[in-house]
Amino acid sequence: MTQTPSTDFLPTSRAEMAMRGWDALDILFVSGDAYVDHPAFGIPLLARVLEAEGYRVGILAQPQWKNPQALQSMGRPRLFAAVSAGAMDSMVNRYTAAKKVRNEDAYTPGGQEGARPDRAVIAYTAALKGAFKGLPVIIGGIEASLRRLAHYDFWDDRVRRSVLLDSKADLLVYGMAEEPLREIARRAASGEEPKEMAGIRGTAIMAREAPEGSSILPSFEEVAASRASYGKAFCLTAEESGHGRVLAQPHGHRWVVVQPPARPLNAAELDRIYARPFTRRPHPSYRDTIPAYEQIKFSITSHRGCFGGCAFCAITHHQGKTVQSRSPASILAEIAGLTRHPEFRGTISDIGGPTANMYASFCADEKTNRKCRRASCLYPAVCTNLHASGRKAANLLTQARALPGVKHVFVASGVRYDLLDQQQEYFEALLAHHVGGLLKIAPESVVPDVTEVMRKPGPEPLEKFLRYYRDSCREKGVRRGIVPYLIAGHPGCTLAHMVDTALYLKRHNLRVEQVQEFTPTPGTLATCIWHTGRDPFTGRHVHVPKDPKERRLQKALLLWHLPQSRAEIEEALRRCGREKDGAELLGSAPHRHSAASREKTRRRK
Ligand code: SF4
Predict the structure, then answer these.
(1) DSSP one-letter code for 233
(2) 456 CA → ligand 1 middle, Å
(3) Residue range 340-365, pLDDT digits in tens
(4) Distance 369 CA to ligand 1 centre (A)
(5) Which atom of ligand 1 is nearest to the CA of 386?
(6) What percent of the chain has pLDDT over 70?
(7) The pLDDT of residue 34 is above 90
(8) Order of strands across the sheet with 482-488?
(9) Pocket test for ligand 1, best of 307, 323, 367, 378 (most atoms within 8 A of CB)
(10) Could you tell me where in the chain the CATH 3.40.50.280 domains are found?
(11) Whose CA is nearest to atom 1 of ligand 1?
(12) pLDDT beyond 60 at 605
């Protein structure tokens, strides 16, 4: 493979700064991920945005955080340092839902785990503050974003303070950060201190007083002591921030002040960002491949944002409910550039975003949109104001596959099948040309009581889609499977619900490949329910499967087709008094609790 010169990358060392003739940086980015100069990675994208504004920007990727010299290797930046844990919260990245250390970190060369600290935002900020006395540090990325207010932390099993306090950072940027960072850099360059920068949308700051007119949330002390206050703070945050209000939450004698979200970007603004000179490769200093890069090497981000509002998903919290789409011209130009990549063999692995078929969708009623309190435009039913014909997305796919050098264009991002009625044209194109092998869909559950807690479509739209998919395959004479993604251990899901799910899967001839176990990530509605045991909006009690044994049995039920699940399925059926379903689920009358199956269960424990 041709090596891309390191001068095409942003500097990562003094030597690379010297190659550009720089003696100092303006802004130093510190990231928990390896440096892949690709727009799918947040830090390189932001660094390229600030580079375009004329700032001298460098990237320290996965530095040795315990060694001050490693932090000082590119010198003291003139304006500030900007810290991100990486594309994932560092605790989610490192630990499984069972709190075990994962074997792989997909964002590190060779998939090596341990290249970033736990609670990376706090660790990197402390390291920078130690290495450079008085240097302003700005934190951002998903870890800082979702921990901007007092939040329940699954790994500590307690409510933690805003990460602004725990990290002692000067300013926090949440959500997609291009606009706030541009303004911060501009104001810092004109001599303003980041910790004094009040009023920038998409930021949070510590203050001695709550700004006039701000919405006051229950304090950290209250939400830490009372689950009811935690639920109240969650509802207030969701309602008030969606209406452009400033939020203020007391922490002791100080306040965390959160400005309204940053303004969504229009197509021209997004196109300019994606037109930056990304090399689309990992930095040449890496010897081993980076698993996350291998996955997205030939994929295209067509848009950001999601109006699905699923209870467990952090994307709406981070990217926002408004879908912001690039123009077809910008996307097609990026694909044309990819065809010149020496490793490109003609396949675009994905054109999508958080949800592929939301490309170019929007709320058609601006006035209602401004007052809209719905967390989802799709749940409990597709809103009549939603313009989501899918026509532009279908055209985009057609144009992409007609480009010279392109043989296949696949859609690997998730699709919302409950938009089938509105998007016949898109689904026709998708099934005819853009599914590679199996179609993956994400109902997450098929039981109405559970999908209601998840804010997902129930079994009816799923069945309609399955019928459509199978009829369409039959008409085209193709044999193509479908794989559902389902979550075990989600709030609201009991063992009996999971027995119903397993029966549904068997009746519909569906098999999951891999079970996802619910992890309560900071900031989501599902995590609030996990912590409080109640839906904060209705006050209704919700079952929370916290018992590890129950979670294991739920997982086994989803894998009903595997012989090794049998003993646990039998146990699950007994636990919820559903032995009568054993014959259908296991293909015969449930085994009597044999000595062999008892021994197998004991060993698994
Ligand atoms: S009015 Fe309907 S389409 Fe518009 S934002 Fe609200 S839920 Fe979404």
Answers:
(1) H
(2) 16
(3) 998 999 999 999 999 999 999 999 99
(4) 6
(5) 3
(6) 96
(7) yes
(8) 439-444, 482-488, 516-517
(9) 307
(10) 6-208+253-258
(11) 369
(12) no
Cα–Cα dist 148/171, whole Å = 10
Q: Which fold has domain 298-436?
A: Transcription Regulator spoIIAA (3.30.750)
173 lines ligand 1 (CB under 6 A): no
* CATH of region 438-605: 3.30.750.200
pTM reported for the whole predicted model: 0.92
234-270 tens-digit pLDDT:
999 988 777 789 999 999 999 999 999 999 999 999 9
Assigned architecture for domain 6-208+253-258: 3-Layer(aba) Sandwich (3.40)
Asked whether residue 602 carries a pLDDT value surpassing 70, the answer given is: no
Binding site membership of 242 for ligand 1 (Cβ less than 6 Å):
no
pLDDT of 395 higher than 60: yes
pLDDT band at residue 604, thresholds of 50, 70 and 90? very low
Distance between CA atoms of residues 176 and 203, nearest Å: 11
Spatial distance between the Cα atoms of 351 and 390, rounded to a whole number of angstroms: 13
Is the backbone peptide bond immediately before 380 cis, with ω within 30 degrees of 0?
A: yes
Q: Which residues make up the CATH 3.30.750.200 domain(s) of the chain?
A: 438-605
Q: Is residue 386 lining ligand 1, measured as CB closer than 6 Å?
A: yes
3-class SS at 234? helix
Hey, whose CA ends up nearest to atom 6 of ligand 1?
Answer: 372
- The answer to whether the CB of 171 falls within 8 A of the CB of 194 is yes
Ligand 1 atom having least distance to the Cα of 373? 6
**Distance between Cα 308 and ligand 1 center (Å):** 11
